[in-house]
Every structure is written in structure tokens, then in C-alpha cells.
Amino acid sequence: MKVTWLEKENFVTTVIGQLKDAEVVLDIGCGIMPQSYITPKMHICCEPFEQYVEVLLERLKGESDRNYIVLNATWSEAIKIFPAKSVDTVFLVDVVEHLEKEEGLRLLKATERIVKKQIVVFTPFGFIRQEHPTGRDAWNLEGGVWQKHRSGWLPEDFDDNWKIYACKDYHTTDNMGNPFDKPLGAFWSIWEYPSMANSQEQRYSDAPKSLWLDFQALQKKHQALQQTKAVIFARKLEENPFLMKLASVGYCFMAKIYLVLRRRKTEQEFTQIKLASDVQNSVTKRESTRDWWESCHKKDHKFWLSGTNPQKIWESLKIAHLIIPGTIVLNIGVGLGYDTFELAKHGCIIDALDISETALARVMIVVSRIWLTSQIQDLPPNTYDLVISHLVAQHMSNQDLSEQITHVIRSLKSSGVFAIQFAYPLNGKIDILNEDELHIKSGAVVRTMDMFKEMVLKAGGRIAWSQELERFPDYGLGWYGVQIQRVE
């Protein structure tokens, strides 16, 4: 069994590079945090614990980067209703260790039938004891019994069809944030479907032939609900009780999902129009930027407050190795608190800075000190090992960002790092209206790297590392990740 050993700082990003694009993802045992490593068009979450499902549905309100479907079902119940090769990728992230070994092996085998591209497994390296005697889990929900570890896994549990990527020191704390005596390992295991060039499509003999033919056509058109066959077939299902019954019992599961997506596509388009309208209305009535964000936080607005996977943030900004017990962190722009709470679970000492009092109240339980952005001059000098800012700079004017960088650099220890993401224009040009209220509230303020470097130099810092993170051609912009250090 060949194992590719990786350092912690590039462990996740290396694996992300091995993941294939997928239109349909089945995310088994996702809890309240679905995978965010790739962005499919349709993300099917399968979660057996009803309380997690309720929280998940609430958290997904307003999400518009993909279409979500949530199933309250065990893995065995869900697997039965998926036809052969009906999903591109199955994710099993922190799942198999919660099953007895034999059940976990059955799960892995069962998923091979339904995938067209990959099965992606993440699990601790060997057995790590995890129990919750009180019944309360790390999210303070009643899922303690579901979070118990029942098996330990090693690369040799997977045959040669799986690619293994491992890290010896990935876990430094348990899921409650208590530090281990020494770091413990973890690994990814990725299975890819063999070439289907000469194989024939599996058919269900008990499904009507005409229904199957329509189903095959739908499978080939995941991206195009508006295309004729998908729409016609969806209408057939809506109009024909017999066909609807077949779909409801799983003979044509994907067709049933297309019905949901058709409705959700309309809802998504409406949501995008409403988002633009919300910002425009805020500008028209001359609502201050602070009041705008306060309103978003009071409504728990999922779109504007984001919810990026903390591990993905840390890996992209190359700071994962700094997230260890005792690291003193300033978290700028806490959003829904995902990053803040995850930092606390890893034993970091956290202060928070945000424009919204409601946002700061959300994370008060896990932070030491809080500041509003209007109090940024009060940040203590020579204090922080790490400062994190993600999806914040594009909501700030150049003047405000320059002031923030100045005070943050002053607050860094001599070895401290300010890790920040900012947006830049793909064509290198800055619009004359780049800093107007509409751009600031909608997160469309862009800067060239030269502009950003100038801000840093004037603030008494230097850029120690920078890298392009992502490109968004449809919007004409991309993201840079930067690490800033103080000039002594």
C-alpha cells in the first residue's frame, strides 16, 4: 500500500488538488458542516441525526453557490435509493471511525456502485478515543452518541484501488479543544471509478423502459434544467401520478431531484435579485455601513455573512501550522462564527474585531476580548501571533483598510503574521466607482497587488508571502492570499 506523506501546512490543499469536478455530490454523515472542498451543482447531504438535520437546514438558508438537498437517513437507507452511477462523488469526511469496522467496510463497498468519479474518505490515523458521557457534543447539541469513535482505520484497510494521503501530526487537540500529549495523524483515502469506455449502463428491469430512457437523458444534462428533455420530463412527473409514484419510491431518484432543482432554480434567481435589491435599498435610504452589517447579523443572513470551512481558510492562507494550543489570534470579521469557534476548539486564545455588536455577541463565549472596528486604535501592541482576515477587505474602502493594516501591524509580535485575503481585478483596471457604497456593501471593492503592497509598506510592514487563491472570470475578479509581517 503506497502512502503519500504530507506536511500539515499543505495536507488539505494537496488533496483538494486531487478532487475531480463534480456536478452531483453525496455527502454522507455531514453533521451540521457539509464539505466545502469542491462546489457541485447539486449537494445532497445525508445525515441520520434529526437535530443535526434541523440545524443544517437552518444554516443552509440563503446559500446560493449550489443547490442543497438534505436527507434525514442513515447511510444504508440512503444508498438503497440511488441508482448505479447516479452521483459523481461521495464524501465520507470524519464518518467511518464512528461506525464499527465491519459496517464501515460495507459502507465503502456500497458506495462504489453509485459513484461515477470518486469516493473521498477522511479519518484519523488509527483509533483515537472520543466519547461524550454527558450526551452533549462539541457543538453543544445532543449528538454525543453519534460522535463516539467505534473503530480505528489505517491505510492497509484500503486496497490498491485507493490513493492514500497522510499526515503524521494533523490533530493537535480532541474535538472539544483539549490538547493531545502529542499530535496525532490523519489520512485521506480516494477511490476513483475505473474507465467505463467499454461497459454498458446498468438498467433496472422493474422500471418502465420509457421512464428509464428519459432518466438516462436527464443524467447527461445535470447542468441544463432549462433544456427541453429535463423540463418536459419534470412536467410529465408533475402531471402524471403514476410517474410521480415511481419517482417517489426511487425508480427515478434523479428525476425527483430535478423537480426540486427546478423549483430551487427559480428561488435562487429570485434570491439573487433580492440580494441586489437589498443592497440598492440600503444605499438609497443612506443606511450606514455599520447599520447594514448590524441588520445582516440580526437576520443571520447566510449569504452576506459567509460560512467558509475554517480548515480551507487556514490551508489557503498557509497558516494551518500556526493553529495550535496557546496561539494568540485576532479574528477580524467573525461572520457566523465558524472560524472563531474552530480556533477555540484548537486551543487558541482569541480576540475578535468586527463592525457589528451582534456579530461579537455571537462569539463572546469563546473569545477573550472584543473590539468594534471603530475601536481599532485600542488594539494592544506587540500581542498577536496571528491575525486572520478573510472575505473582509473587499467590503472596505482604501482608507479604512490602510488604517486597519497600520493598527494590526502595530499589534503583531515581532514574529507575528497577518494573514489576509483581498480581491483584485483580472484586467488590472480599477473602476472609478470602486469604493462607492454599493461596492463596499456588496463586497466588490478590488485592488491591484501594487496598491496593496503600497498600503503595507506605508503601515510599516512587509509582504512575507503572497499567492493567487482563486479566479472568478464571470465577475472579472480574483482573490489573493497574503501574509504580512512587521518591519523591525
3D architecture notes:
There is one protein chain. By secondary structure, the chain is an alpha/beta fold. 34% of the residues lie in helices and 24% in strands. The strands form two sheets. It has an eight-stranded mixed beta sheet with strand order 1-7-8-6-5-2-3-4, with helices on both faces. A seven-stranded mixed beta sheet has the order 11-10-9-12-13-15-14, sandwiched between helices. Helix 6 packs across helix 7 (241-248) and helix 6 (228-239) crosses helix 8. The longest helix is centred in the middle third of the chain and has 32 residues, at 253-284. The model is unreliable at 196-238 and 242-271 (pLDDT under 50).
Count of separate DSSP helical elements: 16
User: Structural class, from helix and strand content?
Assistant: alpha/beta
The CATH architecture term of the largest domain is 3-Layer(aba) Sandwich
Categorize the overall geometry: globular
The number of strands is 15
Helix percentage? 25-40%
Enumerate the spans where pLDDT stays under 50 for 5 or more consecutive residues: 196-238, 242-271
Name of the top-level CATH class of the largest domain: Alpha Beta
- The strand line-up of the biggest sheet is 1-7-8-6-5-2-3-4
Q: In angstroms, what is the radius of gyration?
A: 24 Å
Average pLDDT reading: 82
Number of domains: 3
The CATH superfamily label of the largest domain reads Vaccinia Virus protein VP39
| End-to-end distance | 49 Å
Biggest sheet record: 8 strands, mixed
Quote the beta fraction: 15-25%
Q: Write the CATH fold name of the largest domain.
A: Rossmann fold
